Queue: 2 jobs
Job 1
Amino acid sequence: MTTTQVTLVQIDNYGPWTTTPEPRREMDLQTLQSRLFADIAQFLGHRDAYVFFTRFDNMIAVTNGVDGAAHAALQESIGNRYPVTVSLGTAVAERPVDALEAANRQLQVEGSAQDEHRTEVLAGEYLAETTPSDLQVAHFDVVNATGKYTDQLNEFDTFINIERAYGSLMRHLRERHGALSFFVGGDNIVSVCSDLPEGAFADAVSHVGEDVDVELQVGVGRGASAHEAGFAAKHALEDCRHDGTSVELFGAPAAGD
Amino acid sequence: MTTTQVTLVQIDNYGPWTTTPEPRREMDLQTLQSRLFADIAQFLGHRDAYVFFTRFDNMIAVTNGVDGAAHAALQESIGNRYPVTVSLGTAVAERPVDALEAANRQLQVEGSAQDEHRTEVLAGEYLAETTPSDLQVAHFDVVNATGKYTDQLNEFDTFINIERAYGSLMRHLRERHGALSFFVGGDNIVSVCSDLPEGAFADAVSHVGEDVDVELQVGVGRGASAHEAGFAAKHALEDCRHDGTSVELFGAPAAGD
Amino acid sequence: MTTTQVTLVQIDNYGPWTTTPEPRREMDLQTLQSRLFADIAQFLGHRDAYVFFTRFDNMIAVTNGVDGAAHAALQESIGNRYPVTVSLGTAVAERPVDALEAANRQLQVEGSAQDEHRTEVLAGEYLAETTPSDLQVAHFDVVNATGKYTDQLNEFDTFINIERAYGSLMRHLRERHGALSFFVGGDNIVSVCSDLPEGAFADAVSHVGEDVDVELQVGVGRGASAHEAGFAAKHALEDCRHDGTSVELFGAPAAGD
Amino acid sequence: MTTTQVTLVQIDNYGPWTTTPEPRREMDLQTLQSRLFADIAQFLGHRDAYVFFTRFDNMIAVTNGVDGAAHAALQESIGNRYPVTVSLGTAVAERPVDALEAANRQLQVEGSAQDEHRTEVLAGEYLAETTPSDLQVAHFDVVNATGKYTDQLNEFDTFINIERAYGSLMRHLRERHGALSFFVGGDNIVSVCSDLPEGAFADAVSHVGEDVDVELQVGVGRGASAHEAGFAAKHALEDCRHDGTSVELFGAPAAGD
């Protein structure tokens, strides 16, 4: 059984800020958002957690092993270095979506995301310890994406295919299994799941093939942290690439990692 | 009639690099990608151009007013500061997708995106001058996204709605009009279009409403650069917000901007 | 008695890289160096350690509480995201300079800083635990720097005064006490010391006044980490500012910090 | 005759901000300062200008070729992305120090650097055009610094030597010639000078050797921009390294640069 700790990172009152006193330059907003995400990725990544950019003003993180003090340090550091602040809600559940739902409620009960008085909320519960199979992560990519798309189509039409595959997969895994799936660039999608069997991944690959005609392959890993599970998934996906299989489970982490 | 200059930014041989000699930590890749995007956003943004993260390993930029020397400077600076290099293909056409198609071909004829010997391509044509209505940009957002989604649902389910709206809109505008539409965070979508009339935007809003049941509004602007057109679009969108309209065209840029 | 853990961060073979195949643009080098420093400051800062930019290609860190695994993670992450790599040598001693000397030797015995085959050295010893008075940090600034210098002189002449004060202080504390002192911007100097009495700081302030005619004040703190000691020092320095004293010791850390 | 345009970049009311409501974490301040410097280095560097970190809260830039609109864009972008704002004063003179003096006065007449109401000043005059020998830049480094210092001494004692050489050189060139000299990392010092003859540089090298017993070499370049002059200086310094000379003037820029 999985135990997933999820943190919602929400920029406080961001929408109004972007247009006050008048609209800010779009490229400055893009820079601010992506650098904030990068900083959080570094902070959490070095603690073996994952964060996904999602909508940038709201980011979803998988934070098993990161305690309340670390969340407080992250929040303080952002407040010291950015013109915006963030609220952080954290919760734990077997299924990722249930953890997110509870994490999200921690902020919603304190007020609206656009309430200028609801800033720097830090709320929730954190796992006291981690165990080796708390997390299951699946790493999908598109079979021969460079040969079939990138080198053939214009980039936007390539992107349409990747985006359709992502949309199809993320909805399927959310509805069927309560998993949270994120596009992470290129042709890569990372899903944080509960304890799903091999058949569930084969079904997901089939579903996307039938739904939008894009062929996926997937490696699946387990671990005590998002990095550990995700790294095992990356190794399993390498096995797919080398062996031409479409689902590989529980790849062993590299020695010393 | 619009005249759109589009640049494709492609990280050279990136896929293999991410797994050589073994998979690199996902949060380091996320950090690298988002900071590279941020740097390009700053470089181009200060020249009144726009860049969109798209798939991060391939980014699409609208670069009217940015000449070949500036493209060369960007490429050199990235090569000096990152462990990866980029290729840049640029082309001009009335419709954004046609410009991208030609820009993309500049790189494809030189070799595969995963050809380790095809690095730092710098190719294409650049507009010699700009005129005040070369570009049309539309800025969409979701009506009352915070009240209807962010404050009510968990973030992933909110994201599913935004993502579906984006997918529906980007495909509609691509197929019908050759426009390129990009999610830019929150509930915002920026479309780079040819010279579309008001009815085309009203149709797009209707289409998304019927297709995925998300209500959009849109401001549209014209200008000599992506920033100028996009900034006018932002102001027009502010008018939608204040007046409750769903389409506003050609908002005047703020004085002095 | 203090117990200081010092880490030398050295960019591998950096000099030759900056001029190969021909000199790289100075502003790209400045950007690379200062962002690398910023990343290390974030990584170590969140672990309550300090790093100083020193010469940028060689940075000195005070890393009590940061273990070998964290040093390895930092080294790997830099290798994943920068065009250069770093070597890290760590050692422990009562006096900061002795710890640095031993840390430095860890790298020197492996080869020259410009030996292209000596890369990513990770060597040394790390404290197994920390105790509340392991570190002593002094935070100096210039009395009324804004009124006397910044608002009166041109910035370079202001800087000459600050630089002279820094040079005088850093040499005095190094020779007399084996302390390591770093300019951290503005008119601020942070010294990492062994267990010096109040008189040693009063002497240092007098020495600089006589030597270069710049009036300093100083707050001194103790703690289990560089942040803890440095934060107490900042609070003590606030007392100097409010009370007009020139030396304040062992300011209590703020509640909850 | 040289024509030097200098810009003073001053963070508004920074000192008080760093301690309000209580002292901020030192590593957050270091990160903020060095990233702000890096952003300005990118912005100005891509316009062939130079900026030096100096005291970080006050930075000195050599901005021939950068007009008032670009200065305004830089100021706005920083205000959009940082928790602090900057004021910019610019002036032109033959000698760098005279340009800085006038640039600095542009801000001083508007109020104190710590006046909370004096924010985002943008003042001064900008050159209407550039000519090929407007700027003279000298690039110094220490002869065999790695062999004599880095690989032999502990890093702090190495730094003491470099710092003493820098202090000696910067004061000599300031007093004798009104030049502005900046440590740029490693063992490198960049001087922005007026039209000095070869003998002035030989004298400077001798002065430092006698004063603090550190042996320097120097390449000198001319150009229409800081980058052009500085790049020629770097090439000239390469000649020193290869030929064992201590002063090389007017190195030719690399073809195509």
Note: Residues 35 and 191 of chain D are 23 Å apart (CA to CA).
Job 2
Amino acid sequence: MRDVAIIGVGITKFGELWDKSFRALITEAGTKAILDAGIEGKDIDALFVGSMSPGRFIGQEHIGALVADSSGLHVMNIPTTRVENACASGGLALRQAYISVASGIHDIVVVGGVEKMTDVIGGEATDILAMAADQEWEAFFGVTFPALYAMIARRHMHEYGTTREQLAEVAVKNHDNGLLNPNAHFRRKITVDSVLNATMVADPLTVLDCSPISDGAAALVLAPLDKAKQYTDKIVKISGSGQASDSLALHGREDICTFKATVEAARQAYKQAGVEPKDIDLAEVHDCFTIAEILAIEDLGFVKKGEGGKATEEGRTRIDGDIPINPSGGLKAKGHPVGATGIAQAAEVVLQLRGEAGERQVKDAEIGLTHNIGGSGATCVVHILEVV
Amino acid sequence: MRDVAIIGVGITKFGELWDKSFRALITEAGTKAILDAGIEGKDIDALFVGSMSPGRFIGQEHIGALVADSSGLHVMNIPTTRVENACASGGLALRQAYISVASGIHDIVVVGGVEKMTDVIGGEATDILAMAADQEWEAFFGVTFPALYAMIARRHMHEYGTTREQLAEVAVKNHDNGLLNPNAHFRRKITVDSVLNATMVADPLTVLDCSPISDGAAALVLAPLDKAKQYTDKIVKISGSGQASDSLALHGREDICTFKATVEAARQAYKQAGVEPKDIDLAEVHDCFTIAEILAIEDLGFVKKGEGGKATEEGRTRIDGDIPINPSGGLKAKGHPVGATGIAQAAEVVLQLRGEAGERQVKDAEIGLTHNIGGSGATCVVHILEVV
């Protein structure tokens, strides 16, 4: 397998973008990534796109062809593939694109992630997202994602003494980071008190513990490392890629406070990259709910099991902490257009490693990690990126 | 890239299977493929699955995790990926699985295709399938797939003198083949007259020119060629894999009588395999409508452009003809559970190349081809398989 580099990134504003269509968003992100890489359409060998449920959100499947068409690349009959694994669709599209370049079957590949979620009303969006859970054994009985993560939070509090305030600190920190990100869905400061006193969604999670329903897209350009310098000097290498599964339903697991898919995907990625958790300078993790970020930093090995809440409270995960988590604002503040999330995470890490993250720049960042979850942890994709 | 073999196949009955769920179907096909390959669960490195619109057909996304879970493989945290490109989802899942083995990232990979289409009523199934067309520029204005293919048929008749009877001959031949396939959705003989006099769907296509709404699943086991013999003696090599796109909407093309995505995908596959159309002993092509099979045999180079109707009428595409097409019965008679189709095509070719196709066996078959289309030709995936 060949080494693979990311040579271009593009991202749209995330938010309630009623004036932009699905195809407009993905085309905007892709065009930005292509311009950033300094390539032209004729250089592109293949497209991959991650999207969770365009069939329900916008009444369109066959997204691979749609993206080729909307970007004009169908004229060259470029192969295009959609990948779906719920909210891990973007991360998994990146992994498929990575494998296709590493294998030698393609050279220059564009991979995008996109979701247009605000064209349906809130209740329907919740129904659609519930399709990432086990429809027959969870969603059918009325369990929504906030409810599943609330159960995880309650158990984590019981097992490890994690406090309600520690959960809130995740949201406060990610909103502080989002203030520094021009593309973030939410750019306003919140406090622990405002999280605690916000509308209850599923006890103990209030609405400020939950990531929003967002529209948006992000894209990357991949190339074989040995050819990357032909196009640009801004090269980041994909040094590790891991993927794992777990039971679709939460009740199928021995322990709901550890996501085994995260542990296994991270093990693969660390091994391939030849690094350990302590070598990671920053990480973009899947904070769909505040408790999810606490699980993530534990399962990725940044802190000991059960100490995620404490580490957050102590400020260790802030941009100036010893393990900066979600400098972009994360899903919580940057927004969570589900299919775009995994690609947007990688886009943020690339910008950080290139020293182009502006006010939210993590100092001396050389190795970064992305962590993208599908459902309540049934899919996990982890990538490790390094400055070349 | 390593050579890749198919070492196991499994297929369910296709039809209106109201007593079998989506997860039961894919698990049945996967289990059959695993048993056929002589492997065990612990040998499997990854799963891929093609499915077009489970989000609309059964209210479930996150299909990769669902399949791992329903097959019990989540216990080993096996990575699972869903691929979607409309009715080419199965063929494209096979291509991703192939690339993952060829790259060296995985050894033993199971790839399945599945769709459960009969849990919604007919009109809704048509709406769901229309999401493979351009929703904003075709489906929104009331154009359904039979209508799109009817326009292609009318134009083909105008350009090349293809007759209504020649279209019907495709259906008659495929029903004759389906009679010989125990898993086929339809196992009854039809005649040219019965096709011509059936209920009109979209002029000139009657209901007997159209493939049915079916439930079903199919699966394959892939392995590196040099390790395949460890597991089984029944080895077929994937010698070529091609994929291409075209405009999503039919109106975006210069010529609707040629699917450029087919021509380009076939060019790639022939080149990789080092063979020409005349070397192919049999093909499973995407006959979602009778006109589609005529386009396919022309675009794949089996006959000259415009002569597909004549070749069919002359019996050249029958099991005992010089280029047997769809010995399984094709989408028309075997059935068309859309996500399963591309995998089922490969399963049929493998059985033919192994000499295990029973009454429908093509004599001396050594090289076979599969041709899987998404939408009205916006995606095409072609594979060439050879006896080792």
Note: Residues 149 and 289 of chain A are 7 Å apart (CA to CA).
